[in-house]
Amino acid sequence: MADFQTDRRHALAQVAAFFDTLLQLPDGPESRLIEAMRYTMLSDGKAFRPYLSYAAAQLFNVDEVSAIRVAAAVEAVHCYSLIHDDLPAMDDDDMRRGKASLHVAFDEATAILAGDALLTLAFEILADEATHQEMSKRLELVTALARAAGMQGMVGGQMIDLQSPQLDLDAGGLTRLQKMKTGALIGFALEAGAILGGADEAQRHALTGYAHDVGLAFQIADDVLDVDAKSVNLGKTAGKDAADGKVTFASLLGTERARDQAGLLVEQAINHLALFGDDANGLRQAAEFVIKRHS
Amino acid sequence: MADFQTDRRHALAQVAAFFDTLLQLPDGPESRLIEAMRYTMLSDGKAFRPYLSYAAAQLFNVDEVSAIRVAAAVEAVHCYSLIHDDLPAMDDDDMRRGKASLHVAFDEATAILAGDALLTLAFEILADEATHQEMSKRLELVTALARAAGMQGMVGGQMIDLQSPQLDLDAGGLTRLQKMKTGALIGFALEAGAILGGADEAQRHALTGYAHDVGLAFQIADDVLDVDAKSVNLGKTAGKDAADGKVTFASLLGTERARDQAGLLVEQAINHLALFGDDANGLRQAAEFVIKRHS
Predict the structure, then answer these.
(1) Alpha carbon distance A167, A161 (integer Å)
(2) How far is CA A277 from CA A48, A238, A269, in A?
(3) Which of B23, B33, B41, B185 would you mutate first to test chain A, the one with the most A CBs within 10 A?
(4) Which superfamily does CATH assign the domain made up of A4-288 to?
(5) Candidate from A26, A37, A139 with C-beta closest to B139
């Protein structure tokens, strides 16, 4: 029970099934939009973020339907951000998850719209009564997602990231960027589980701390991966950050020190989970996966 | 009381004041994003959609704070859609509201992100308890906005519009496009007033009917305007639809018949308002404004 890889595959399959049912091709020219959304949502991602929200919900024995709907909303927002970030006007990435980016497979306009539609859909999913019978929880989810995704979270972080070649960021500045761009949605994934589960303050605090450390470790590991890996393994263009002149944790600290830092953060993340006992073993393994995946 | 121009100016000023307070420049590189959002939200639009939601709320004596917050969310979503639609990959429009489009004044990446942030912000505004004390109403607002803005509404409509030069649409197809692209948000504006006000079924039905007819009249009038007007008066590039090879109501019906059609729709829209008596005079004037503004 609570095995990371088992639960991750389960969450991935359930989220894919959810979107397969939800995204039915309509009988009109807007079917192109739905095709584009399906291209993204039924592709084979790591499902790391949906896993985190699913696993956090499991800690509180949250109903399966609720947990999967929230995991689906998390994945929709993650995918929207990847689609928009990959656009030529942004990071200009042609590959994603081992296949052509959405704007390459379709076109830029369709990619912009598919991202917009996925972001909107996430809020529709969360507000629906199927997500949880308690209205206060649905509202809390909507508010928490909006804060994580918006100008003070992901979008603000991407705005900083785009300017980063000109910013000469130090480790503090880069950590802040990461916290907004990547950390906010990882934070929401765990917070969402806590909201669904009616977590008490200590439990919430533990999950917030875990999310913070795992999020930062994830980004540091990603930067190291970007230096080390070949594109074919990474499923996206490798070495791109350096080529774009972006400061990364790898370039600031060197890959060795960056690896050490990520390892320390993972330990710290795991320490946050003590109060959950063995129920949190999956989340412990997930934290370790963050640094092991590049070996 | 209930005068269109007075209430429209009031709603415009209050919505601008709301965003002026909300969008404070942070002390970091993400301030560029907020500047871009301010560029759009504090510009001098017609405020037609926020007026409609404000006026609908006034029919039920809804609290001013609630009415303005919802009007602000409507305007945020409208502006996000204009920003994204103006992008080079979409309609490629350099002018908007009499000044440079956001991607021209800033850059494409910033415009994409500002749109994303405004869409997200709209949901955050609606879910906040300051919008209404009743949770069920806030949830209903979030759901209704997501449906109006998403794949079955605005985004789906824009997807069809982009393909319209290849689609050979007839009046039915064009009406469906318009209903999704323009009509859905106008529908939400009025529905939102009904939700806030706890409208009964007859009142809701009346406002939905009004929204449908006004929305269609608005689009037909816009098409005629696009043919007739000079860019300087329209505040956006004129004659663009024809140049893009897009079917419009003006090209399908001819400008004379299109004008007649819009006039009939406005009459029909006004007829829906009978049950509100004199309280709906502002909405009646708004419907007439839709066809008068191009003279």
Answers:
(1) 9
(2) 21, 38, 14
(3) B33
(4) Farnesyl Diphosphate Synthase (1.10.600.10)
(5) A139
CB < 8 Å from B in window 110-169 of A = 110, 112-113, 115-117, 119-121, 123-124, 127-128, 135-136, 138-139, 142-143, 145-147, 149-152, 155-160, 162-163, 167
Q: Model confidence over A168-178: pLDDT tens digits?
A: 899 999 999 99
A104 touches chain B (CB under 8 A): no
pLDDT of residue B295: 42
Q: What does the pLDDT look like over A40-74, one tens digit per residue?
A: 999 888 899 999 999 999 999 999 999 999 999 99
Q: What is the DSSP track for chain B?
A: ---HHHHHHHHHHHHHHHHHHH-PPPSSTTHHHHHHHHHHHTS----HHHHHHHHHHHTTT--HHHHHHHHHHHHHHHHHHHHHHTSTTTT---EETTEE-HHHHS-HHHHHHHHHHHHHHHHHHHHSTTT-S-HHHHHHHHHHHHHHHSTTTHHHHHHHHHHHHHH---HHHHHHHHIIIIIHHHHHHHHHHHHHHT--HHHHHHHHHHHHHHHHHHHHHHHHHHHH--HHHHTS-TTHHHHTT---HHHHH-HHHHHHHHHHHHHHHHHTTGGGGGGGHHHHHHHHHHHHTT-
Domain B4-286 has CATH 1.10.357.20: no
For B208, the token pair is 């939905």
In this prediction the pTM is 0.96
Q: Distance between CA B190 and CA B186 in Å, rounded? A: 7
**pLDDT single digits (tens) B34-72:** 999 999 999 888 899 999 999 999 999 999 999 999 999
Q: Kindly provide the ipTM of the predicted complex, given to two decimals.
A: 0.96
Place of tokens 């890959």: A255
The pLDDT of residue B75 is 98
Residue A150 pLDDT class (50, 70, 90 cuts):
very high
Domain edges within chain A: 4-288
pLDDT in tens, A207-250: 999 999 999 999 999 899 888 765 555 666 666 777 777 889 99
